[in-house]
């Protein structure tokens, strides 16, 4: 009898999986602390939790009915929010699903998917699932895109380029001229604006000029509903229609839909939380400016990439964990001496600052 793996698609059988964040109880168990003492600054989540009015919108829903396959209410509300026509918008189960749908639509086995490392790991993971050739072009010393190297790498096999702006984990924005240079090649360019509300900067206006541009957004970070999994894409009506044609019919569940509608109704209150998180990130920057042995890269997101010069990032990670503070590390990579620290509440930031001062 054949082994199960022999029946599988070969590229799937031994795939390098994506390591997401662990639940707080697991983090606490590994660090030998109580789960309620865990401060999660490791996934750029919103530490304020869901907004009350958003949580209230989840009661009394018609859970026995299937959601709208055409996402009419959702796309209409997103149209008001983004000031883009509804036919240019599709919602996905997190930005992650949109990334996966783009691979399904555009990428065949052996074709090229490009990203610029260091960056968000989901692009490469989804490309691996598509059995694509992943070309990760290193960013330069300011973490900007190496445009000549990208243009060299874009050939007949290239299908799609993923560029996060602000980039996770480096925090810098994609420039309009770099975006244009890549859009002009004609391949699909996905500008991932998951942290748009923190950065306040978008390349949406380029949609008027380029049918090959996709803007990706999310409700996970600014709206505090990562657990409900809603993101969306804005692109040409033609591209969006193709994505609608291939998506799982009921990809956005009733709870996710209700939460997004409520979040958009209360967007001003939610944006106050966004501004507060930016303030907390800036507090950490000021403290680091006054410390030796640690520095940071300027960030437009709700996170800060910090470099350790006198001790290893791994040691700093362990020390922070003893204080109950969990951050993101990047072992065996160009960022192996850096940690990405998400913005927290004022109280969490007080504890982070005290811990940083004690460890560097
Ligand atoms: C750059 C970037 N894109 C996309 C995502 C995925 O977000 P979502 O929760 O909407 O799937 C993340 C999440 O960390 C991210 O950092």
Q: What structural category arises from helix and sheet content?
A: alpha/beta
Average of per-residue pLDDT values: 97
Global shape: globular
- CATH homologous superfamily of the largest domain, by name? Type I PLP-dependent aspartate aminotransferase-like (Major domain)
Tell me the number of strands.
Answer: 13
State the order of secondary-structure elements, H for helix, E for strand. Answer: HHHEHHEHEHEHEHEHEEHHHEEHEEEH
Bound molecules: pyridoxal-5'-phosphate
Give the neighbour order of strands across the main sheet. 2-8-7-6-5-3-4
Spans with pLDDT under 50 lasting ≥5 residues?
Answer: none
Examine the coordinates and then state which fold CATH places here, giving the name of the CATH topology of the largest domain.
Aspartate Aminotransferase, domain 2
The CATH architecture name of the largest domain reads 3-Layer(aba) Sandwich
**Can you count the helices?**
15
Strand content: 15-25%
User: Fraction of residues in helices?
Assistant: 25-40%
Distance between the termini: 58 Å
